[in-house]
Amino acid sequence: MGCFQKHQVDHPIPVQALVKCKMQDNLEFLQWTKRYWDQHYPGGDYDAVARRKGAPVASGGGGARAPVSTGAVRRGTTPTTGPRIGKAAGGGPGSAALQQENNTLKETVVGLERERDFYFSKLRDIELLIQQAVEEDPELEKQEDGLVKHIQTILYSTEEGFEIPAEEAGLDDQETF
Question: Which segments show compositional bias classed as Low complexity (predicted)?
Answer without folding.
Answer: 74-87
